[in-house]
Specification:
The protein is α/β, with parallel strands linked by helices. The protein folds into four domains: 140 residues, Response regulator (Rossmann fold, 3-Layer(aba) Sandwich); 99 residues, PAS domain (Beta-Lactamase), CATH 3.30.450.20; 75 residues; 144 residues, Heat Shock Protein 90 (2-Layer Sandwich). Helix content is 47%, strand content 24%. A hairpin with a 5-residue loop joins strand 18 and strand 19. Helix 11 packs across helix 13 and helix 13 packs antiparallel against helix 15. The longest helix is centred in the middle third of the chain and has 47 residues. It is rod-shaped and about 140 Å long. 25% of the residues are buried.
Length: 480
């Protein structure tokens, strides 16, 4: 209800002045409230009054010249007006009044049954209902604003998890437009069948799943690590629907993975230095002893064995040096250069391997040069190690290798993608560890060295793969 100290402003919309005076007399008979009663007899003026909220309550006659009060109610509703309108109808017009309420009127009165008591009850009911509806719509706007402005994806879906309403963050995360998402099910975005089955079973049994970590695909088949919470609800008509919120933790997972990799490298570095020290001490003694023995045993037959000893001692020393170098930060000399030029040199260096296996190569560059600060020679070694790894993973004659450069705001992204054997989840967390390899004749230093070079450029290196479905190495460089 309005403030008792202020008059209730009422506008009577009627093209008959006598009817206006009759209604005014009835309203003035109400002593519980103060009223300011105004008259409007033109349809267009009435629309403007209601649209601009000039009054607290509007009595609208059904007959308004060439148009009707019902048309007026429909017109202001189309303009999203929330003002309380009461339709005044003639004799035996109950159906018309009900139709008016369905179109937005708060109540209706039959002129033949008007009296002060009925009008008072109608005014009180209409104002209270108007306050309730306005508060409800204000809350709706508030929560819709929260829905739209949320940085986390929020969605509503039907009982089959087909999207029905999504906010902008959902569209941005999955790279689909809102219109496209309406034709997609949440299940279609899950990255693994096992995770989907587990999630689906829990939702069906419990009706709610909270803070479940899952991997999901975007439109571009990028894998995103997400925290997903959903619950089944029932709407006013008794139909089931699902509401949910998604938190993208891909960046956090990358940071966590990078920190873990740094810790592993630091731990490996400490172990390697200790091991190198412990091995090189007796190795030095062997060198010295060999030098003492060589002059004393100068016959040709025994010199062959001395040569074998010396070659293998040097080989052990070289392996220790390589092992230490794989964990030691590279010294680099940075110059402004383009990623396209470095990749072209990498492709040229691996051209024979690509040709011998009959691999399909695709290069996808942006129109503009992708300038970065880099040591071109060192970065070429890193790229070459990754490219050779991809070449060795694909099958002859059916292998595909795609190298792309794209503009990602403050960074340039380099993607090296193959359709090879892929990397198992077990091996994925170890592929950058020194001397880890799944190849029979491999040494396991190529990717460890590549990671070291990339980190020396203050860039990031990540890999996405599904066992049997190829792998994609993703590198991010700051723009020069």
């Amino acid at each position: 209800m309005t403030n008792r100290g202020l008059p209730i402003r009422i506008l009577v919309v009627d093209d008959d002045e006598d009817d206006f005076l009759i209604i005014t007399d009835y309203i003035k008979g109400i002593t519980a409230y103060k009223f300011q009663i105004d008259w409007c007899f033109k349809y267009d003026d009435a629309v403007n009054h209601i649209f601009n909220s000039t009054h607290d309550l509007y009595f609208v006659d059904y007959m308004l010249g060439e148009k009707t009060g019902l048309e007026l109610i429909q017109e202001v509703k189309l303009k999203n007006s929330e003002e309380p309108v009461i339709l005044l109808t003639g004799i035996d017009s109950r159906d018309l009044g009900i139709q008016a309420m369905r179109n937005g009127a708060v109540d209706y009165l039959e002129k033949s049954e008007l009296n002060t008591e009925k009008i008072e009850r109608c005014i009180r009911f209409s104002l209270e209902r108007s306050i309730y509806i306005k508060a409800l719509k204000a809350n709706e706007r508030k929560f819709h604003g929260i829905f739209e402005k949320s940085k986390d994806p929020i969605f509503l879906a039907d009982e089959n998890l087909m999207f029905r309403e999504v906010n902008s963050a959902t569209s941005e995360l999955f790279r689909f437009s809102r219109e496209e998402l309406v034709d997609i099910s949440l299940w279609d975005l899950f990255a693994g069948d096992q995770a989907k089955s587990s999630f689906k079973a829990q939702l069906e049994q419990q009706g709610v799943v909270e803070n479940k970590e899952v991997e999901m695909f975007t439109r571009l088949k990028e894998k995103k690590s997400c925290i997903l919470s959903v619950s089944r609800e029932i709407n006013q008509s008794g139909a089931w629907y699902v509401q949910g919120i998604i938190r993208d933790i891909t960046h956090l997972k990358k940071i966590e993975k990078a920190n873990l990799q740094i810790e592993k490298l630091q731990s490996a570095d400490r172990l390697l230095r200790t091991l190198a020290h412990e091995v090189r001490n007796p190795l030095t003694n062997l060198y010295l002893s060999l030098d003492q023995l060589k002059p004393a045993r100068s016959d040709q037959e025994n010199m062959i064995y001395f040569d074998i000893f010396e070659r293998n001692l040097r080989r052990i020393d070289l392996l220790i040096s390589e092992l230490l170098d794989s964990a030691r930060p590279f010294e680099i000399s940075l110059e402004k250069t383009t990623l396209q030029a470095i990749i072209d040199k990498t492709v040229a260096a691996s051209a024979d391997r690509i040709s011998l296996k009959d691999i399909s190569l695709q290069l996808d560059y942006p129109d503009q040069p992708a300038y970065v600060m880099a040591d071109a020679g060192k970065l070429k070694i890193a790229f070459l190690n990754i490219v050779i790894n991809a070449i060795e993973a694909v099958k002859p004659h059916s292998g595909r290798l795609t190298i792309s450069v794209s503009d990602e705001g403050p960074h340039y992204k380099v993607s090296i993608e193959d359709n090879g054997t892929g990397i198992s989840d077990e091996n994925l967390s170890q592929i950058f560890d020194p001397y880890f390899t799944s190849k029979p004749n491999g040494f396991g230093l190529g990717l460890a060295s590549a990671l070291n070079i990339i980190r020396s450029h203050k860039a990031s290196l990540d890999v996405q793969s599904t066992d049997g479905l190829g792998a994609t190495f993703i590198l991010l460089f700051e723009k020069a």
